[in-house]
Structure formats: structure tokens, C-alpha cells
Write a structure and sequence with these properties.
There is one protein chain. By secondary structure, this protein is α/β, with parallel strands linked by helices. The chain folds into 4 domains: 3-132, Response regulator (Rossmann fold, 3-Layer(aba) Sandwich); 145-311, P-loop containing nucleotide triphosphate hydrolases (Rossmann fold, 3-Layer(aba) Sandwich); 313-396, Helicase, Ruva Protein, domain 3 (Orthogonal Bundle), CATH 1.10.8; 400-447, Homeodomain-like (Arc Repressor Mutant, subunit A). Helix content is 49%, strand content 14%. Helix 18 crosses helix 19. The longest helix is centred in the first third of the chain and has 28 residues, at 109-136. The model is unreliable at 395-402 (pLDDT under 50).
């Protein structure tokens, strides 16, 4: 955007300035009044506007404010024959880049023009990066066309525009933080902070300080007042990952934030008020945690105003190929390799795998494969357990959706998921001996 618009009703002075600016390699446009200038701005994107203060149909100081309101990326340099302090102050308040006096400041015009253009270029880059960031965190970037993931996306889109608390459930590695960021991005808080904290990464006391902050002297090492993440996220969204790991007494303090919008910093008696939307996530069954006395029932009902379950990767097998291709492009770019594709045999092996680590596990597998290969990801580039599963699958009988063994395998897997891997409980629910269950798990390769 190396375009410069010169607005001045003195034609000779305007033409002279246009020649000087043109010799610096800028594309120069001219206007003698506000009406012509606004038409030029509508037709062409201008980087810098050099504008006289006194125009036949406008005041340049006021025009600067109008230009900045309509075209915020453009910079305005005001020029006047008779400089005065009040006009200069008002010009800067209206968003002008600078205010100079004709004749006295002629030597400043070109250096000033370059500095203004640098600011324009920087603003454009920031805008592009923000757009890339917005795109990265939108639901449009969630990969997958399977029915389970599309259902989750539809639910998340519906709740995104509200201020309702959201609880994301599902196994580890299913993309809960990706959904939390997308919900924030499509909310009316998208221009405000998104702050994430993993509740399992801190001890109870440290987690409280991280969330709510502390007062100087509240504990050993607290040498100064410290804001917590809830304050950092004010007017925005806070994402509480692994919520089920939070201690009971800290859950009570979180409940207070949900109910009153207030909390106490550690060591402080005066409450702090915040306006924060909470999106939480857990891979635990919170209903069972409530039964066992590990999670507050009242907090559960406040935090799960809108609950969305993210499906495990084994329930969205159709998405494995596009996810693999996405990770292939990502890691090929990072390693500066020209890798064409993932081979059909490799895709077939990936589809056979159980993916207990879900998308995170698939991402790690593809990253490893990209490091090992030079042209195309083949079966030999996968971890040995995936290679063996693929070989045994090709030698043995293929399970189909209409196969009794296939139905049995799927049913056992669902029961194991329900019991969170508790084989004794699963055997009871399946009404079979524990030894039989172990034999079936080994037979179907469910471990």
C-alpha cells in the first residue's frame, strides 16, 4: 500500500509536492478539496494522506478524524501555513500521524512520510496475523466431516454467541482446547483475552494463586501483589482444563465466581469483581466423581449449563485420512521436506488402530513418520505396533460391520470406554468371566 494522497487547494504547491514524493518511488494521487479526496479514498487504498489544514470545503483537522474513522490503517500528516498549538493538539487527538508547518518543516516531509508508511505496513502485518489467528481458532479449521464431530461443532456454534458456561467432556487428546478457543473466537468476547489453565498442573495452593492472584506477604515468596488469571481474562474467556482434578475447597471458590462474579485474592479480604465466561473441560466422569465425593454437585450444575461431548478418534474413522494429511503438511513445512502423501496402505493401518491417545496420538505418529521419510509416508515409517497390527490384519480375517466378531469387538470396546478401562467392572456388565474378557481383549487387539 505505497499510495500517497496529497490534498491541497494550491495547485502549484500540490504539483511540486507530488513530484518530490513521486521521486521517492511512491504512487501519488492528488485532490484539491475534501469532496475529491473522499472519492479518491473510496476508489484507492491509500497508505499516507498529506493534507492541508485549510481547504475550500473543509477543515483539515476535522477531515483527519473522518479519514481515520473510515480508513483506520491510513496515516494522515497535516500541513499548515500558520501552525498553532491548539490545532496541532486537536490534530493528534483526531488520529493524525503528525502536524507540520509548510516552509519551516519542508526537510521533514520525506523522512516523516517514510515513518508513517512503516507504521502503515506494520499495522497491515498485524491485521493479517490477527486474521490468520482468528482463522486458526475458528470452527472452520476443525478437521472432520464425520457425524459425531459435526454434531459437536453444531452444538458449540449454537452456544458460542451466548455467555453460558460450557463443559467439554471426552477422552484425553480429543481437541477440547481447540473447541474452547473456537467458542471464544465466535463469541462477542473474541476481541478480549482468552486465558487457559490446566488444573492438574499445579498443587492446590499454587493453583488458587494462579487463578485468583495473591497479595504481597500472603505466603513465603509472595513479595508483591500478583494478578490471577481470572483478572487477566476479565471481559474475555477463561478455559479451565482438567477441571475434575481441582480440590474440593477450591471448587467452592470457583462456584462463588460463577454465582457472584467475585473472588478473593490469596491473603486479601476485599473481593475483586470480574466479568468472565468460563469454558471447562474434563476427561473424568463428573457424575461418578460426585457420587464418590470428589466433585461438588452444585458446581457441576453451574459449570455444565451447556455440555458438549467430543468423540474419540476411533468413533470418527472417516476423519483419520484428512487429519493425517493435515499433520503431514504441517510437519513437512516445519522440517522443510517435500513429502507428497500418506500411502493407502499406511492410511488403512491408521484406520485399524484404536487411538487411545486420540488426535494427539495421531499427530505424534505423523510427526515421527515425517522425520523418517523423504518422499511419501509408508507403512515402514509407522511405529512397530501399527505395522504389526496392519500385517496381522491383512493375513487374518477382515472384520466387517456385519461380522459377529466385529460387533462383539465394538461392543466390548464401548463397555471398556464406559468403565474407563476397569476390566473387572466391564466383565460384570458383559456378564462374562474376567479371564474370558482378557482373552477377547487380546484376540481383538484392544490393548
Amino acid at each position: 500500500m505505497k499510495n500517497v494522497l496529497i490534498i491541497d487547494d494550491e495547485e502549484k504547491l500540490r504539483a511540486l509536492l507530488a513530484r518530490i514524493v513521486g521521486h521517492e518511488g511512491f504512487a501519488v494521487f492528488q485532490a484539491g478539496d475534501q469532496k475529491t479526496a473522499l472519492r479518491q479514498l473510496q476508489q484507492t487504498e491509500m497508505g499516507v494522506v498529506l493534507c492541508d489544514v485549510k481547504l475550500p470545503d473543509a477543515n483539515g483537522v476535522e477531515l483527519a478524524g473522518l479519514i481515520k474513522s473510515k480508513y483506520p490503517l491510513s496515516e494522515v500528516i497535516l500541513m499548515t501555513a500558520y501552525g498553532n498549538i491548539p490545532d496541532g493538539v486537536q490534530a493528534i487527538k483526531n488520529g493524525a500521524f503528525d502536524y507540520i508547518t509548510k516552509g519551516d518543516d519542508n526537510n521533514r516531509i520525506i523522512p516523516l512520510l517514510y515513518r508513517a508508511m512503516e507504521k502503515v505496513d506494520l499495522a497491515k502485518r498485524v491485521q493479517q496475523l490477527e486474521k490468520q489467528l482468528d482463522d486458526k481458532h475458528s470452527f472452520d479449521k476443525v478437521i472432520g466431516q464425520s457425524r459425531p464431530i459435526q454434531k459437536a461443532i453444531d452444538l458449540a456454534r449454537k452456544v458460542a454467541g451466548t455467555d453460558a458456561s460450557v463443559l467439554l467432556t471426552g477422552e484425553t487428546g480429543t481437541g477440547k482446547e481447540v473447541f474452547a478457543q473456537a467458542i471464544h473466537q465466535e463469541s462477542n468476547r473474541s476481541k478480549q483475552p482468552f486465558v487457559a489453565i490446566n488444573c492438574s498442573a499445579f498443587g492446590k495452593e499454587l493453583l488458587e494463586s494462579e487463578m485468583f492472584g495473591h497479595k504481597a506477604g500472603a505466603f513465603t515468596g509472595a513479595t508483591k501483589d500478583q494478578k490471577g488469571l481470572f483478572e487477566e481474562a476479565n471481559n474475555g474467556t477463561i478455559f479451565l482444563d482438567e477441571l475434575g482434578e481441582m480440590a474440593l475447597d477450591l471448587q467452592a471458590k470457583l462456584l462463588r465466581v460463577l454465582e457472584t462474579g467475585e473472588f478473593l485474592r490469596v491473603g486479601e479480604t476485599k473481593p475483586t469483581k470480574v466479568n468472565v465466561r468460563i469454558v471447562a473441560a474434563t476427561n473424568r466422569n463428573l457424575q461418578k466423581e460426585i457420587e464418590q465425593g470428589h466433585f461438588r454437585e452444585d458446581l457441576f450444575y453451574r459449570i455444565s449449563v451447556f455440555q458438549i461431548e467430543l468423540p474419540p478418534l476411533r468413533e470418527r474413522v472417516v476423519d483419520i485420512e484428512p487429519l493425517s494429511q493435515y499433520f503431514l503438511q504441517l510437519f513437512a513445512l516445519r522440517t522443510n521436506k517435500k513429502i507428497r502423501s500418506v500411502s493407502p496402505e499406511c492410511i488403512e493401518a491408521l484406520k485399524r488402530h484404536q487411538w487411545n491417545g486420540n488426535i494427539r496420538e495421531l499427530k505424534n505418529v505423523i510427526e515421527r513418520a515425517v522425520i523418517l521419510c523423504d518422499d511419501s509416508v509408508e507403512l515402514e515409517h509407522l511405529p512397530i505396533e501399527l505395522q504389526r497390527a496392519a500385517e496381522s490384519g491383512s493375513q487374518g480375517k477382515t472384520l466387517s460391520a456385519f461380522d459377529l466378531a466385529s460387533a462383539e469387538k465394538i461392543h466390548i470396546q464401548k463397555v471398556l470406554n464406559y468403565t474407563n478401562g476397569n476390566k473387572t467392572k466391564a466383565a460384570e456388565l458383559l456378564n462374562i468371566a474376567l479371564t474370558t474378557l482378557y482373552r477377547k481383549i487380546s484376540e481383538f487387539g484392544l490393548e
